[in-house]
Amino acid sequence: MKVVITGGTGFIGRMLARAILDRGALTGPSGAQEEVDAIALFDAVAPPAPLAGLDDRVEIVIGDISDRDRVAGLVDRDDISVFHLASVVSGGGEKDFDLAIRVNLTGGLNVLEAVRARAGAPRLVFASSIAVFGGSVMPAVVGDTTKQAPQTTYGVTKSIGELLINDYSRKGFIDGRAARLPTIVIRPGRPNAAASSFASGVFREPLNGEPCALPVKLDTVMPLLGYRSAVAGFIALHEADAGALGDDRTINFPSHAATVEQMIAALRRVAGNRRLGAITVEPDPGIEAIVATWATETEFARATALGLPREANLDEIVEAYIEDFLDG
Amino acid sequence: MKVVITGGTGFIGRMLARAILDRGALTGPSGAQEEVDAIALFDAVAPPAPLAGLDDRVEIVIGDISDRDRVAGLVDRDDISVFHLASVVSGGGEKDFDLAIRVNLTGGLNVLEAVRARAGAPRLVFASSIAVFGGSVMPAVVGDTTKQAPQTTYGVTKSIGELLINDYSRKGFIDGRAARLPTIVIRPGRPNAAASSFASGVFREPLNGEPCALPVKLDTVMPLLGYRSAVAGFIALHEADAGALGDDRTINFPSHAATVEQMIAALRRVAGNRRLGAITVEPDPGIEAIVATWATETEFARATALGLPREANLDEIVEAYIEDFLDG
């Protein structure tokens, strides 16, 4: 079978591709495990350097996700699964509303229609976000029964994506699943336009010996999940039996609620004798305003029942990053 | 100022136009009461006969709401308000998914963009529905803090519309409000493709001396609102101060939860000596399946605080219909 990963040259897309290559097979539309012979990483722009850790089963396809024909051409086999990760992120969506609608809403519809056009209702796993929660109705702990009240355009488009995944699945057009992600850390490389970018930066920059200027205060709470668990969760959600998902195909992913202060404490514990770059607090009102609308703690009983993992604690998340990106 | 009513030749659209003509003015983008000098009733097909009770301020405009330029051309002044009522209904959406997406989602985006293109963020009132609720997470009573979990394509597109109304308003592109309607009764004329059509038919057909075959059982519960209150609610919601709406622009409208048996009892009480057509129960599994996903009782504290009315009881709803359509 073929696997398409939109936003596939991004960090999570690449890690997911590697995990699928290692695994070798996924549940296909037939319901049986099928060997993965091709992975297409679809993205808006070509990566600046060749991607490491992949092999000749992997093809990079560059295109505009808002082009319906382009997306239809990508989903060109019936024995296929799609992981739809492409998205304008939170901070980016606040800066360019029209781009967020074009990429996240029109692009999302194009992916749904492309999968629907195949025979056998292939599986489609959509990356959603806890940014679907917010506003004055938001309870202290958010979960699978909490009202969606997003306060960013990003969160609105993710909420719309969840609704469409449910309806396309209910109609039998696709076998959809949505992964409602907390903030995924520790992303390697450079900061991005996500308002949550600092949650990786607070670990990454100091470990690289670089200074980190935090745009939020130390008591800011974020629900975090390590990228290893996020990738394992994407695959577990893809593999889950549709009957176990019921009439709501969106699963709140596991997380650890942590203050920025706790993140820094975990960093210092795990870093040991490493020389760390300095951390300063330089509040950015724009970032603070977005982060203030987000949930701080999540409930994830359905995810746990489906076997979706989380790390034991923040320390394990830091250890994994050091192993994968610094000592590797 | 000008008022545009999409779906304007339908029953609620016509009643709303008449109420606005009687009123003579609405709050314009200036914040002050402005005289309404033009009302455009936009619809997909021309009405079969001239519409009664209107005057030369009213123009009927026929066009396709999924045509962005057509809709932009309709919203052709800055001193304008739009009531967006056009929609493929619940039963219709289950039969033709693509039409529901084209009219309700693409059409809705066209209306939002047309209003956004005007100066001064004009008011836009969107007709949503309690069909946004449903599924295994639905509580016994639904309200403004209940998770949206629609189980029809109609409900999904209404939920998406609510999310977009909030976001376009948050961005300051428009001053949007969404009216989350229960089943509105008693609609005159013929049955339509809404799965809730029987809730009008159970009153209307017997009063017209015609038989009524109910597609659901007598203990089926529906939240009902009379059309007079629905129209008054639309205007009250349009007139409400934006500050009173907070970060959720969707208001659950008032209703009365009633069994079909209670509807029939109210009909018999009010009808007195009128000769009524026979009522029989002939369950339609397709209609029953849709209705079974809907909420039966609604909470509407925010609506009440905003001054949105409901009738005192079902009897008052039947009396209004007789006055407006039988004895008029």
Task: Describe the SSE topology.
2 copies of one chain form a homodimer.
Chain A: E1 2-6, H1 11-23, E2 25-27, E3 33-35, E4 38-43, E5 58-62, H2 68-74, E6 80-84, H3 90-95, H4 97-116, E7 123-129, E8 141-142, H5 153-170, E9 175-181, E10 183-185, H6 198-207, E11 212-214, E12 221-226, H7 227-239, E13 250-252, E14 256-259, H8 260-271, E15 279-281, H9 285-292, E16 297-298, H10 301-305, H11 314-326
Helix pairs in contact in A: 1-7, 2-4, 4-5, 6-8, 8-11
H/E element order of chain A = EHEEEEHEHHEEHEEHEEHEEHEHEHH
In order across it, which strands form the biggest sheet of chain A?
A: 5-4-1-6-7-9-13
Strand content of chain A: 15-25%
| Greatest chain-chain contact | A-B, 28 and 28 residues
Secondary structural class of chain A = alpha/beta
Oligomeric organization of the protein chains: homodimer
Architecture of the largest domain in chain A, according to CATH?
Answer: 3-Layer(aba) Sandwich
Please give the largest β-sheet of chain A: 7 strands, parallel
Helical amount of chain A: 25-40%
In total, the number of domains of chain A comes to 2
Count of separate DSSP helical elements of chain A? 11
DSSP strand tally of chain A: 16
In CATH terms, what is the fold-level topology of the largest domain in chain A?
Rossmann fold
Instruction: Please tell me what the overall shape of chain A is.
Output: globular
Q: C-alpha Rg of chain A, in Å?
A: 19 Å
Weakly predicted, low-confidence segments of chain A: none
CATH class of the largest domain in chain A equals Alpha Beta
Distance between the termini of chain A: 31 Å
CATH superfamily of the largest domain in chain A: NAD(P)-binding Rossmann-like Domain
